[in-house]
Amino acid sequence: MSGTSTASASSTGSGAPVEFDRLPPAWQPTPVRPRLPIGVAVLAIVIAFLAVVMVLAGLLFVLNGALGPIVPSSLEIFQSIDLEGAAILMVLGIAMLTVATSLWRQETWALWTTIVLVFGATAYLFFTGLITILFLVFVVLLVYLLAVRRYFY
Q: Reduced to 3 states, what is the DSSP secondary structure of residue 58?
């Protein structure tokens, strides 16, 4: 095809064919992005909230150690940690915030990371004999995350 097209012009009244300079681009279907399931949205918000608390707790401890009287020790969330523990707390909080953001964006790696962590927590509770409401919540959450995995890409 040379990019030109001919068609008969019945509306112009002349019998001469009409030539077009170029054809419109071919239609391409756009991929449909599935909607975010409400349970995943709630889970992402809870993880983000806990992550912010962890980062804030580590940051307040570090600021209290560095600035002393400017940041009172009564603001510390965890008072029995040291500087290395506060740094680890901040790193874990940032990692959890990354996972929560990626869950919100429906990224597959965040879903599987969450599934592995929930499975690990469920297995820990099972093998230590702590079959409580928290264990049942983790089992339901694990089944739910496996059920909504088709919404992630």
A: helix
